[in-house]
Amino acid sequence: MSDSTEDLLDSDPVTDDEPTSTDTPADESTGDDDAVAGTEASDQTAVPETTVPNSLTEADENELGHVVASEEIHVTRSDYKVNAFVKTDCRDDVRVGDYVQIPYPESDPTEQADELFAVVDGLRYEPYTELDDKSDTHNRIASAHALDETEFVLVAELEPIAIISSTDDGLERSIVNKIPKPNTPVALSLDEEYLRTGLNIPQDGVFAGYLSVGGDRMTVDGDPLPYFINNPGIDPVTEEVESGEPAIFRHTLVAGSTGKGKTHFTKNLLRQFATDKRYPIENHQTGETEHSRLNLVILDPENEYSEMRNDNPELQNEDALVERLERQGIEVGGIDNFETFIPDIGNTNAPTTGESRNLTIPFSLVEHRPQLLMPYKPTEVTRGALENCIDAYFTDTDTPTYDGFLQYLRTNEDSESPLRQRYNIEDGTWSAIMRRVTDAAYRDVFDHGTNSLPDVSNAVFREGQVTVIPTSHLHGAKEELTVLSILSYIIDNKIDDYNVDPNVKDTPLLVAVDEAHNYVSDPDTLREQYIVNRARDAVKQGRKDKLGLFMITQNPEDIDGDILKQTNTNIFLGLREEVITKVPSIPRGYEQDLEKYGKGQAVIKAPDVEPVEVIGLPYCLTQHSN
């Protein structure tokens, strides 16, 4: 193993116990603190002893200060103002983004008190004395002596998130409708159950990274805290449907600029879906509920995902590391149930992907999707005439092909032909049709090879399989037509109710589209309008039809707005400032941070979960050469 590989593995968040600001307990305050804080420290009231162990917090160990009494404290339905004085010996241990808890007074001392769960939203220094440092004299004094921090107090500005209560069934969260009391102790939150309850993070599911603050993973009892995306299905033991709704069928966006680790992060996330977990889905013919595994289709424009079938060679001799990851519920290693289908397109060189099969885009797809032949905005007359010609051709033939369609039109070129007479197609309209349908991209895309998509759909959309469709050998019109043909086939057969492909309709599907902004952006042509409209319908019906759309892009601002509104899980890695200002789904308070995020650092907003920062693994769980 190379030195660089060893360095990478040494940074493994499971094994690295190096302390961070969130896992270093603050020491008890000293007499010096009282001298610094003056009356503020003396106003602090002691927490009354109770006969019940404090199951929510270990305040003495993790206490960092107290609620400031000398400023207004208010809690309303629209905003909050809660500030905390930070003890002198804790100043280096608290950062923006840390989580804290504040107990409410309990009238019954035998009962466990509720606590306010909050995040440090800001930090500020305030002068303790009548300090005037706006002079040259002060500069000369300051340069001759070390900084005297006793001239200032550090105040943490808190944003309340929830109220946490202890019940017989464990911890529960509720809305913030009570005000914390002045001088109440404020402690760092360093308990896993407490953090998961406060942030509403699931206990298990699809691993997406580790909870972090400022790019440093949070640790609880020396271990990083895994962040899971909710993914209930069928319990493998009881065969009962688990409570909750899989977030994958409420759609996902992964957005990040080049160099921020977007593909690495996405591979690790997609790897977690390649399991034996089953989901309930209704058979469209019998109406009975079946239990089926997920089929994951990845549309791959850069030929980066086919190697997910292989183990990461850098992890091959790291058995202890792999075992620890698996104990945390993280899927590791190459995917066994895996197939690559390469679109067979004329005048192209197929990419090297290892074992693969060819895939043919048949002209028959155009029968119910005439918009595939309209990468422009035709007039109503031309559109109607072309649709009539397509309908007539498919009515008159049992073996439709693109070449056959052209020949059919040529035999009806005369203005007195039955076709033109039937639909009253004038010479000018006919000329427009012929110009439009003789695009070279159609000849290259349609009908090459023998593995027609409908004929091999049972292999492409097999349950429990990861299917990668690379398009790196395609460009321009060929790539657009190929990808949109495949997308339309999936979406139409998934959300329609009549004459559908059962391999698509009756299988839970997650469709991952890299460079998604190229295919589901605000439409400019009739073809794009058709795909976007169908995608809008699909994302609305995803939970019902068990279809999840997983979009990967560096330009989230170009994704159709209606589709983004239906996308419930949003993962943002580092983004450029000009992109951040155009994406409304970026969680409030993270806009400035995103511009500075390092590789693998992200903010996640999942359904019903507080937006949080996470850090991905420093290594890929499958092979990742690019």
Please, could you describe this protein's structure?
The protein has 626 residues and is of the alpha+beta class. It contains 20 helices and 25 strands. The strands form 4 sheets. Strands 9, 10, 13, 14, 17, 18, 19, 20, 21, 22, 23, 24 and 25 form a 13-stranded mixed β-sheet that branches. The protein has a 6-stranded antiparallel barrel with strand order 1-3-6-5-4-8. The protein has a two-stranded antiparallel sheet with strand order 11-12. Helix 9 (380-396) packs across helix 12 and helix 15 (476-495) packs parallel to helix 17 (526-545). The radius of gyration is 30 Å and the shape is elongated. 43% of the residues are buried. Residues 1-59 have low confidence and may be disordered.
Feature tags:
626 residues; 6-stranded antiparallel beta barrel; disordered N terminus; alpha+beta; 27% helix
Concise synopsis of the structure shown:
The chain has 626 residues and is of the alpha+beta class.
